[in-house]
Amino acid sequence: MNADEAKRRHTDIFLAGFRSHLTATGLLQLVRELRATGALDQAAVDRIKEAVVSEAMVNRPPGMAEDEVRKSMQARLDRLLNGGSQ
After folding, report:
1. In this structure, which of 17, 55, 58, 65 has its CB flanked by the most CB atoms within 10 Å?
2. Distance between CA 86 and CA 71 in Å, rounded?
3. What is the DSSP letter of 61?
4. CA-CA distance, 80 to 86, in Å (whole number)?
5. pLDDT tens readout for residues 33-78
6. What whole-number distance in Å separates Cα of residue 49 and Cα of residue 46?
7. What are 55-63's contacts with CB under 8 Å, separation 24+?
8. Taking the CA atoms of the chain, what radius of gyration do you get in angstroms?
9. Residues 63-72 pLDDT 10s
């Protein structure tokens, strides 16, 4: 991963609401690795994403539309779990 990709990933992690970039980066890489080996199927990845999005909904800023936040989070997680920002 080059510096630009790392910077985009950092921004996506921040904007997705993760509070610990180190933990988030490790979790995302772990999910990618487990999916690559076949240990996680797409349904499991979808459940992981839904758990993250659900937690974000609890902590979303007041006044932000739930649908907008949910769609944004899901799109960012899709990018992050597919190997980084694209």
Report:
1. 17
2. 17
3. P
4. 9
5. 999 999 999 999 999 988 888 877 777 778 888 888 889 889 999 9
6. 5
7. 56/16, 56/17, 59/17
8. 13
9. 888 888 889 8
The Cα–Cα gap between 39 and 68 comes to 32
Half-sphere exposure of 67 (CA within 13 A, CB side): 0
CB atoms within 10 A of CB 71: 12
Q: How far apart are CA 73 and CA 49, in angstroms?
A: 9
The closest of 25, 58, 27, 31 to 43, measured between CA atoms, is 31
Please choose, from the candidates 34, 30, 52, the residue with its C-alpha nearest in 3D space to the C-alpha of residue 42: 34
The pTM assigned to this predicted structure is: 0.69
- The single-letter code of the amino acid at 8 is R
Write down the pLDDT at residue 83.
64
How many CA atoms, within 13 angstroms, populate the side-chain half-sphere of residue 46?
3
* pLDDT reading at 85 higher than 50: no
